[in-house]
Every structure is written in C-alpha cells, then in structure tokens.
Predict the structure.
Amino acid sequence: MDRLKQRELLHLLEEDSRMSAEQIGKMIGEPTEIVEQTIAALEAEKVIVKYPALVNWERVDDHPYVNAMIDVKVTPKRDVGFDEVAERICRFPEVKAVYLMSGASYDLSIILEGKTMKEVATFVSQKLSTLDSVVSTATHFILKRYKHDGIELEDRDEDHRMVVTP
Amino acid sequence: MSTQVKVKNRLSSTVQSLKPSGIRRFFDLAASMEGVISLGVGEPDFVTPWRMREASISSLERGHTAYTSNAGMLPLRVEIQKYLEERFSVSYHPETEILVTVGASEAIDIALRAILDPGDEVLVVEPCYVSYEPVIRLAGGVPVFLKTTMENQFKLTPQELETHITARTKAIIFCYPNNPTGGTMTAEEWKTLLPIIEKHDLMVISDEIYAELTYGRMHDSIAALPGMKDRTILISGFSKAFAMTGWRLGYVCASPDLLAGMLKIHQYTMLCAPTMAQMAALEALRHGRSDMERMIESYRQRRNYVVDGFRHIGLTCHEPDGAFYAFPSVVSTGLSSSEFAEKLLMEEKVAVVPGDVFGESGKGHIRCSYATSMEQLKKALERMERLMGRLS
C-alpha cells in the first residue's frame, strides 16, 4: 500500500478503531487482505500502539474519577539526565502521561488519574515527592474536560440540515 | 361585503406556469416522518470550519457591518482571482471580471437575465439542478434539454449538443461536476464540443460549484480552454467546498462587458453580498485549504463505500468522479424512480430524491447524497438491501 493510502488508513482507524478491514478497504479502494496485512505491519512496527476507547467518565454514574496535572521540578543526573527519574515515575500505574517540558519553571509534566482527591494527594506526598531527584511539585486538579484527544466532549454539533434539500 | 381578490390574476403568467419543485414535494413527505435516515441532503454534513466562523464573529466585533462595494470586497475578489488561477488555471481580473454574489444561485440568475432576450433558447444539460429551468423561464428564455445517460457517465456528447441547436439558441448551461449524477468532464471531452460551440457562437454558463469535489483528478474548467474565456460565464461559490451553504456566498466571473451587465442587475436587486459572509469567505480562501482537503478526502472514502454498497445490493451505479452524489439506476426493480423513492421512505425510512425531479434524463434513477456519516450510510444501505430483497 502506498504511503498516502497508509496515512488515510491510520486516520480512519484513529477516528474509529472498530471499523472493519473490509469497510476500510472499500473506502480507500484497496482489497481487504491488503488492509489486514498493512494493519498487522503497522502494529508490528509500533506505528499503531493501541486501540483505546475514549470514555467520558464524567458521564458514568457512581464512578469516582479525578484527574490532576502535576508540575515536577527535578535534579537531572549525570549521563542519564531526566530519563531515569521520568522512567521511574512512568512505572506508577496511576500515572497516565509523563512529558519533559521546555520553557516552564518545572521539568516534568505528569498527568495523574485517581479515584479521589485524597488518593491523588497521597500519591504526590508519599510516592512522588519522596523520590530523590524530585525538588518540588505543584498539583493542579482538572475540574472539567471540554476537549480531549481532539474530541469535544460536550455539546457536539448535531446535524441541523433539512431532510431533503436541492 | 368584501370583494374576493382573484389571486390568479395577480401573478404573472410566467410565475403561474412554473411547476413547484419536485424536491420540495418529497421534502414535505420526508419531514413529516420520524427516524428517517436522509440521503436526500444536497449540502455538506460538515459545519463550516471554525476558522471561518471565527473570522466572521471577529469582523462583527470590529464593527464591519456596512455595505461593501457592489461587486464585493476587493481583497476577496483578489483572493478569488488567485485561487482560480492556482487551482484551475483560469485568470480573471479582480476589478473588472469578478463579482461576488448572494450564493451561486444569484449568479446563475443574473447571468441568464443579463444575456437573454425574450424567446432566446438556452440548452440545459440534463439531469440538472432543479433551478435552471425556472430561472431561464423567469428571464424570458426557453429551456431546451440535452440528454446524458449513465452508459455515457452522464457526459455531454457533441451529437447531443449539435442536434438541439437552432437559430434562437443563445447559450448553454451545465454543472460539472454534476448535481445530481456526480458526472464530470475532462479537458479532452470538452475539446470535442468546442468546434460546435464556436461554430454556433454559443455563450457558455458553467456552474462549477462542485469544482473542488473531484476524486482522483483535478477539475477541468471549460473556461481554461483556448478561446473559451470570452464566451464563458464561470459560476462558483463557497457552499460546497468550504461547507458554507447558509452563508449564501458565491461569485461569477466573465469578460468585463458581461460582468458590467450582471453588475447592473446585482446592484439594483441585491446591492451587495452580506459583509460578514464575505469576511468568512476571505478567511476560507486564505487559510481554509486544509479544512477543505480533509472534507474532500472524507467524501471520496464515503463515495467508494456507497457505490460498492449499491452494486452489492443489486443497483447499477456508475462511479461518480465528483460532487457528493451517487445516482444509481432502479430500473431493474420495475419501479419508477418516484415509486422506488416513496417505497423506500415509507417502508424503510430512508430518504433519497427521485431522479426524475432533475429532468427526463433522470428517470429510473435516484439521487443519493453521501454527505452524511458512515454510520448513517451503513444503516441506509442495510435498509435498502432489505427493500431490494422484498422487490426481487
């Protein structure tokens, strides 16, 4: 499959990962087997990493859910720089994302998910702050998510068109 | 005692003679039902990209609420000139050859009114947009229809063109890529028609509103061919390519004498196109290319999907190269296009438009717009397959 079609395939899967190889094949004009082979190759090359569902947990009743963004200042180490501490932080299951930042007064940005604010606070005070390289932390709780991964979570545009038009 | 006014006498005979739109009739039927999946919509399913909406809001905040010049804001006409030259290799002077209109619909109207004298004949390539015939009649002209067929991918042939030319023929009007068939014409195909157009000194009204929506190749404008610019009135707009239907913004390009004629009608009727819509259009041309490309890619994918789907359920369908309509034949079911469309709506709640509302050549076909979500398309095809199963 050529690179342009491969890119199209990736866009389609990113939009809806439940789309079948047959349907994708029809849409981009390739046989189903070629689509299947290409997807398998992209998975093997780690271009496609995972097929997650984007869940708006705020709409799920009785599901305690807190997101926090934590700015972390660290002391880099000789030879390994920020990598060692970043990798260590990555291993905590409640940590959803870790980024090394530029232009900020801190070094690492961490996105954390917990059931309650207390759980997040406990993680920061007992696990994160106690790491040798961590100099300081600042925790920001996310109050409401309006857009995530390119998707607007509230008030999505509906089809306001008439049923039949010229 | 009140005197009853005879309404019939208050309307002109031309207006009285106009038939109501077949689309409208079908719309009323579909609108009265719940849970209808619509393939009857002739407009993009995308909301106007935010950057255009934002540009318009920002212009309002800055107080740009006054008239613009009759022909439209000059910066917008300059952008239109650059855009047409870059995309379709046609060059018009922004100050004397481009006029911004209230949608392509107004452009068609003023083009016909500017060139027609009573009784002049206008050749109309069928199946066609429902407005051409009434607008020609309102301008005092007489429409003469040229047929195209699915076997010929709905392309106009030299034979069909030449057969219908008379001493009263003034112009020819067409829309390629075509609504409702999705048919297109290549430069080579246009070239076979040029000797006839030149021999009979015809004017050409080329409605290119779907020019950006071509799949697999670029649109070929007839105006770009040698010797054609002077006799062509090129019409386009922002509705389809930029998903800006409700903004009502189009444009017409023609040689200075023709444009001056159209400008007269425009300034006495519309005066100018809405300012806030012009601001949005300016943004669309300057920065909206990537939004447009994203939408076109999506239309192409959906076209592939529905055409394959129609063929799979037993409806013959040519592969449309442009616009966002498929025009499958329902002849094999033994039903007329209206009967099929009505049955599909009443029994399976899928709205399509019967092909015969687009003229005689549309008989036996249905127009299906694939400008709707994949989920809806999938459901519509499942429902159509059920109906086909009962009909076989």
